[in-house]
Fold each of these.
Amino acid sequence: MSGPPDVDYRATSARPAWGSLPDALKHALEVALGTEIASVGSSVRSGFTGGFAAPAELADGRRVFIKASDDTIHSYGAYQREAEVVPQLPAEAHAPAIVTTARTDNWFAVVSEWVPGRMPGAPWTAEDFAVVTARCEALAEAMTPSPIAGLDTFLMDLESGESALLVPKQILAGDRELPQRLQPWVWRILPELSDLVELAPEALQGTAATHSDLRPDNLLIDTRGECWTVDWNWLALGPRWMDWVGLLPMAQHHGIDTGAAIRSSRLTADVPAEHLDCFVALIAAYMLKNPDKPPPPGCTPAIREHQRLYAWTFLDWLATRRGWTA
């Protein structure tokens, strides 16, 4: 393979239509909203789950965004977590406000304000990168220390289940296969990748509440050019620079000078290079888990191509910084 897969994050999901949702849930939504739902648009196609997600127009003139899921897929818990967390976020998060929620025996729906906008990073431009960077800087300031109690650390999340920290060593030991369709030099750098991830207990210390899944499809730039953040269901404690640095490998892949950005941003100007590299190595290791296997239940096949693209671009980012391809 000569390059990474091309993933269009505007078309990665397979979501149900409004007409397929149970009437009981629609009625519960109208009761919670205090008005009838006049019309519902097409489901958005970003994301990797089968949860319903679409804009709607209400009889009283409001426009809202409805997410709904039954209890057989991951989005059921994710939507509940989002409904719990978003009201606790500071204004600097610029997250669409929660309007209401509704539930039936095995369905849950969360309704937020509708923000007309577009996804940045498809591809990244210097202008969009600057807008998103400013939002990340303001968010980090407001979320340090965490305004939300009871969060696990990002490292704890990574170590749960199949720990990403162990992946490089497992591949080296022959206990896990190296995924296909990656750079030809990946096998050679696995020992250094393994050493990098072992810095995680030191590198990922922090008291900031982080989004922990900040990707372009979890960002919106509205018609006024302001950046919004969405899908707040993976919050964790970590260093204040973490969310922003997680955007850098794909931005570099699209031609952004992320080295200059790191030197100029107040988020990273004084952060040890090894800490930044450790975090990117951890995400690369996480993406090396199972990309050649069928997608998890409730997820679309696009999640595996996403993993492969992120593994490729995160390793490329490290290669540039560490001279791996020389």
Note: Residues 197 and 282 are 6 Å apart (CA to CA).
Amino acid sequence: MHLRHSYRIYPTAGQCAALARTFGCARVVFNDALAARKEARKAGRPYPRSTDLQKLVITRAKKTPERAWLASVGVDPLIQSLRDLDTAYRNFFDSVSGERAGQPVGLPRFKSRKDNRQALRFTRNGFRIRSNGKLNLAKIGDVRVKWSRKLPVDPTSVTVVLDAAGRHHASFVVDVEPEELPEVSAEIGIDLGLTAYAVLSTGEVIDNPRFLRRAERKLRAAQRELSRKAMGSRNRAKARRKVARAHARVTDTRMDWMHKQTTRLIGENQAVYLEDLNVHGLARGPLAKSVHDAGWATFRRLLEEKAARYGRAVGIVHRAFPSSQLCSECGHRDGPKPLHVREWVCGACGVLHDRDLNAARNILAAGQADRLNAPGGPVSPGVAIPRRARPGERGTPLGDLPTTDARAADAGGIPVPQDEGGCQSRSNPRRRSQSVTARS
């Protein structure tokens, strides 16, 4: 499992200048390679390979007067910039072909020196960690690092990031084994919202911290000060960084809170179930600012990542499931209700329900049912290790199996189930051939 450990670094004035020069060189190499591929496509030629691009935009370019300054920086970040271009093209083609999930990915675009975020990546040959704790980067020097935690293993690469607030970070990639926690019997369902951030099926309510709303006053003042500065002036650049620092403070506070909440939920429960909210659609409605401030997508992503790391399970209930319409006691569907209705009485059993708590309990029940009935999952609560489902249960036709014996339901040789008369199931090709002969 690959993890990232990010730390704040504090380069000197000379090292900041060297990093800025390296940022610029990597950006130029990326843009030159992208332009070469665009020209090849326009001329009808095949795309240049990565090795050919490396010779064109790095090796040969250093010998020209226009790109001679590329030799003043390390070659490792320049090569990694070309690999980032390959990854961008690969993501685009996978998105077009349907192999990549999520939002559609467009073609790579040219990078600008005015981008709010700059990044460089160094492999094992381009960095090392000194015995005194400093990070040595090729042709940059030893950079002071604020080690907030210890690295579990030696990192395989490091990415130096300059954010919009002018802060430098070092993001190390480490390869570690998953740390499975002891199994517990507790499972919870979570109903996310805006009034209360989360209501658990156990009755616990997590208040919505509203970090952006709390910082709106300072953000408004900083944005007003920025609007008064002349375009292109140094004072405007200072005011812009002030606004960026205010936003970064809100982001860091929110992420710290989310990490603490998700770590606690994953540690205390064996399985966590959520509803598949349409965050992208809600973020374009009248509650867009509150939805962005809540960060539901980030909350779900952190839960899934920590569940994979610590041997827990996260189940997602389909958004069409009527969690707010069903009675969690008797299962009666009482119909849709407006948002201002926070409590309602079941028309069948007469139980008084809290809207969010009832939805959380319904999400828990639906998530447990989906998990127990899923192909390859446990068939009973007492089974700790999931059983492998047969191909027919997974929707795989027997004719598509790699084995030549039609009586084997999977590669393990499990026989096809027989009916009461002792005949094989309908997947038997001999039975199909007999029926065809009888019809003819």
Note: The longest helix spans residues 234-268.
